[in-house]
Amino acid sequence: MKFLRYILFPVVPIYYLVTWTRNKLYDFGWKKSESYNFPLICVGNLSVGGTGKSPMIEYLIRLLKADYKIATLSRGYKRETNGFKLANVSDTAKTLGDEPFQFYNKFGSDILVAVDADRQNGIEKLRNLGNKPEVVLLDDAFQHRKVKAGFNILLSTYNDLYCKDFVLPTGNLREPKSGAKRANIIVVTKCPENLSDEEKAQIKKQLNPEIYQMVVFSSINYSKNVFSKTKQIGLNHLKPFTLVTGIANPNPLIQYLKSNNLEFEHLNFKDHHSFSNKEIDELAQLDCILTTEKDYMRLKDETKLQEKLYYLPIEVSIDQADVFNNQILSFVSS
Question: Which residues contact 32 (CB under 8 A, 6 or more apart)?
């Protein structure tokens, strides 16, 4: 795969030019972006793959839900429905997509969860509801330039900074690095917990943020317990298990489990993998399964797995949480 990407390097300037030109058309107003008179926060990235958007959306929900009516709006990647859909008790990962279903499964009636590939239409539908949201969180919409969010949070992983990458197809960037200028805050995600001030300063220098941009660092906090549909047990009490992942980058989770001296094998599937009946039957032969919360959304209703399937929740920890929170709260209340 990497070899093929190197072969395709001559395509990089073409992809760069197309995406750069598209952004300039929006920047100069020749292509229209819709602005809104209520708080609209976008969480996204420049690269393909997992940068931690879902945990960040959940962080914002926890920060805001006590004081504001919150809605999340996602594309609903790989769902089996079309158009605008507002989550309800009959929905599954198949009707919403795994990440929106995770939001709904976790927060329930505390928030509104909607999916629509057309973000403009999704926002309009949400605002026309009788219990319309006061704040909308846009999940993975940084490149959706038809909507102009009032506040943009750009994520980039510690081990794969966008400033060191190329655009597709050789690299992982969806658009040129200059797109980072649209961000209000840049969050370096999945950092080691003991990241030194010197390394933070070095990373900031590499990112070279604009004067108006704040850079913060976040790490993953793993729960000490794992959960099934009916119970929870301590992670360290989990018997030898098979780790099943269908996420973009399972390496941080693998390293965490190894650091806890846990005994496991790993079955790795592509991001957002839809498990076939045959694969479910094969998983059912395993004694104990641990998966991520996102993957659990796609597997939780498989009756063959319910007695052996556990997931490990995560949350985001931000090193300058007070400053970060105040920026968000100031924007929402303005």
Answer: 146
- Could you read off the pLDDT of 274-297 as tens digits, one per residue? 999 999 999 999 999 999 999 999
**This prediction's pTM:** 0.95
CATH number of the domain to which 189 belongs: 3.40.50
Q: Which domain holds residue 6?
A: 2-68+134-220+317-333
One domain, residues 229 and 304: yes
Q: First vs last Cα of the chain: how many Å apart?
A: 47
In contact, 55 and 319? CB cutoff 8 Å: no
**292: phi then psi, degrees, rounded to nearest 5:** -80, 165
Is there a cis peptide before residue 192, judged by omega within 30 degrees of 0? no
Strands 264-268 and 241-245, sheet pairing: parallel
Q: In what order do the strands lie in the sheet with 214-222?
A: 85-86, 112-115, 70-74, 135-139, 40-45, 151-157, 185-189, 214-222, 314-318
Tens digit of each residue's pLDDT (9 = 90 or more) over 195-231 = 999 999 999 999 999 999 999 999 999 999 999 999 9
